[in-house]
Amino acid sequence: MQPVHFQLQIKILSAIKSKVFFLVLLFVSLNLAEIGLGGEAKEKQVATVAETSYQKCFAFREKRKDKEALPYCRKAVELEPDNPEYLTTIASILANIGQVPEGAEYMQKALAINLKTLGPEHPQVAKDHIWVGKGFMMLGKYNMAREHFELALASDLKNFGEEDLRVARDRTFLGNYFKFTGKYKKAIKFYELSLATYLKICGNDSPDVAAALSNLGIAWSDLGEYKKSIDYLKKALASDLKFYGKEHHKIAIDWGNIGSVLRKSGDYNKAISYLWKALKINRKIYGEDHYLVSLNQSNLGVALGKAGSYDDAIHYLSNALRNDLKIYGNDHPRVASEWFSIGEIYHKKGDNKQALHYYQLALKSNLKIYGEESLEVARSKHNIANTLLYLRQFNQAMPYLQESFDIYKNVLGSNHPETVSCKQGIDALRIVLNSVKNEKIHGNSK
User: Domain residue spans in the chain?
Assistant: First the structure.
């Protein structure tokens, strides 16, 4: 039998071991907890930094300074890459500054996340479909855009029924799809449905009603119904005047729309007076260096060109181009459009070499913005081909015509006026090329 004092020693040692074991366990637990709390704290810190960056981005966006906003939004997205709000915002910024393909990728990612977390019937998912559709429209992928617009409409009809502003919005975007693809009567049908909903919910004098009236006015002008078009546009102007007063950028838009339709109708002097009113309002509100002032100068330049005032036209278009290059850089739809318009003026002046230079700048920009298969690219190539014909560079013109025709046919269909016109150009050029070839053969045989 062991002595008593030895047994006591064993008990004391056991107690000490237990305490040590307990202390070790406590130490490990506390460290694990600290690690866990540290992880949570770190996540909160990341979220806070991301939100701070996003708020800085938002502040620049409110001032319509998308280029300045972009680095802050990129930072927010880098820190929280699965935040749909950040993804949607960066998509919008990139689209506004002309980086459409990258913007479309971010928007599709936001849609995928919301589809997974919210489900296909959630109103936010319908809104995301609209944004994705807008991206595809800008890229010239009209059929893909239509699919997303239709998904949004089906979801919103199911959730809210016919008489809802979201349903009216979805129908407006489907109207835009049909307008851009040359199906103007279908566009008008959707715009009329949107207008009826807005009138029922908002009453006669609201911004949504005015916008719907403007959409109808522009669509009727595409069908050559200029009187009907201007009636709708004047109703939109009257509604906006009640809501905003005389000196507001929405009123400038209304004057500009009426001026553009008058230009299309051939009433150039009256068009110029309306477009000048639009420019005057926005200059007073914003000063010279604003994107809306550039837009007004661009529209005025085009109208002056139609009226035969070529030097004045180039003056206003060059002012617009210079300002838009500062705001957006080279690869933006507005910049490409202004290069294109300046090219048209030089063509009318008979300076086809200079016209070709500007058309090629527009093409280069449009290819970067939209990719190979867009209508903007087709139209740039078509004008390059026509200019090469004036320069009697027949062989160089044919590839541009053929590429334009392929895009027109794919996007607009075989019977669209632009497709038909391009096909007629190809057929006529083939006759010319065969004639030139025969002349060479006969010349060599003599």
Answer: 104-160
